[in-house]
Amino acid sequence: MAGGKGTRLKSESEKPLYKFNNKFLIDYVLDNMYQSKLIAKVLVIVSPHTQNTKDYLIESDFIELRDSFDTYDKYFLDSPGKDYLSDLSYVLDILQEISKDNTLLMLNSDLPFVSSNIIDNVLEIYLNQDKSALSVLIPTKVYDKYNVSYEYEFNGLVPSGLNILKSNNSIQDETNIVMENIELAFNLNSIDDISIAYNILDSIEK
């Protein structure tokens, strides 16, 4: 998902094209997707707020999704850019016309540290259970340890930006799993997050 306004970063560039450590945020996510052993196709959702991102994707050999995933492995799709849930519903309406049984791993473009290993681990958990959807929750203590803020918590757990569901715009039975990875907890949302991001990067690379 790469269609948000990203106003809190106070940057002239769109959020997916914000450079952290000399690399676009969206390229961190794309590279991790490409390195996954279980991801077959990549679809980036853009919006009127991220048209430069769309241009960048086209330059990177992405094509617009039409009526099939059969011919290629890198696609983009325009959404209205209203809000996350509205855009997700819009996307699911389109995708269910192609198939209601495709498995979708949704990952926000501001999660640069979610590695291919984490992606594959979550997918393997999903594939070994029988519900249509899966959400990853992070304990608040992980956020507190790294001084990372969060907007919502319930019973000490915060929804991460990684979810799995079927390409069907309906209520789906869901498995919730708890993981303590800071990589899943950290969204680069504001200028204040940049120094935290470098600290996390240092801890990951050690």
Structure, described:
The chain is an alpha/beta fold. The chain has one domain: Alpha-Beta Complex (Spore Coat Polysaccharide Biosynthesis Protein SpsA, Chain A). It has seven helices and nine strands. The chain has helices spanning 25-35, 51-59, 84-98, 116-127, 140-146, 182-185, 192-205, and strands at 19-20, 23-24, 42-46, 63-64, 74-78, 103-107, 133-139, 157-166, 174-178. Strand 1 and strand 2 form a beta hairpin. It is globular. The two termini are 29 Å apart. The model has no long low-confidence stretch (mean pLDDT 89).
The CATH class assignment is Alpha Beta
User: Per the principal axes of the C-alpha atoms, what is the gross shape?
Assistant: globular
Query: What's the average pLDDT?
Result: 89
The run of helices and strands is EEHEHEEHEHEHEEHH
Assembly state of the chains shown: single chain
* Total of domains: 1
Helix proportion of residues, in percent?
A: 25-40%
CATH architecture term: Alpha-Beta Complex
**What class, by secondary structure content?**
alpha/beta
Largest sheet: 4 strands, mixed
Q: Let me know the number of strands.
A: 9
The order of strands across the largest sheet is 6-8-7-9
Instruction: Please identify which CATH superfamily we are dealing with.
Output: Spore Coat Polysaccharide Biosynthesis Protein SpsA, Chain A
Radius of gyration, taken over Cα atoms and rounded to an integer in Å: 16 Å
Distance between the termini: 29 Å
Strand proportion: 15-25%
The helix tally amounts to 7
Low-confidence runs of at least 5 consecutive residues: none
